[in-house]
């Protein structure tokens, strides 16, 4: 899933960019025979991830982090930390 910040509907260029960003991931998943759902959605990032996962009936959220942590997270906030806080689903963070 690709999320663009602070918009509710993807504009055509964002849709195109999002699909391009997903292309390599789709290829890997297809080669591995993994079932998946991919969507390009927009909105406030953490809120959109948590809401989308719930709407789709997901069991779990897995997401990567930059691993900054510490002071950087305090000052800048962390999308991953916000998803953990907002979601009612289990969230696994991969560094």
Describe the structure.
With 95 residues, the chain is of the alpha/beta class. It has two domains: 1-43, no CATH class; 59-95, no CATH class. It is built from four helices and four strands; from the N terminus they run βαβαβααβ. It has helices spanning 12-32, 45-55, 70-76, 79-86, and strands at residues 2-4, 40-42, 61-64, 91-94. The chain has a two-stranded parallel sheet with strand order 1-2. The longest helix has 21 residues, at 12-32. It is globular.
Short description:
This protein is α/β, with parallel strands linked by helices and 95 residues long.
- The share of residues in extended strands comes to 5-15%
Overall shape = globular
**Biggest sheet, open or closed, and with what strands and sense?**
2 strands, parallel
Assign a percent range to the helix content.
40-55%
What is the β-strand count?
4
Strand order of the largest sheet: 1-2
Q: What is the number of helical segments per DSSP (H or I, 4+ residues)?
A: 4
Distance between the termini: 18 Å
The helix/strand series, from N terminus to C terminus, equals EHEHEHHE
* Count of separate structural domains: 2
Structural class determined from secondary elements:
alpha/beta
- Mean pLDDT metric: 84
Provide tags for this entry.
95 residues, alpha/beta, 2 domains, two-stranded parallel sheet, 4 helices, globular
């Amino acid at each position: 899933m690709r999320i663009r910040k602070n918009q509710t509907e993807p504009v055509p260029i964002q849709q195109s960019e999002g699909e391009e960003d997903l292309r390599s991931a789709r290829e890997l998943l297809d080669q591995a025979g993994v079932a998946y759902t991919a969507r390009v959605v927009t909105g406030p990032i953490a809120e959109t991830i948590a809401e989308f996962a719930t709407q789709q009936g997901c069991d779990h959220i897995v997401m990567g982090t930059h691993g900054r942590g510490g002071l950087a997270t305090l000052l800048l906030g962390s999308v991953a930390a916000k998803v953990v806080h907002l979601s009612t689903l289990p969230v696994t963070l991969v560094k």
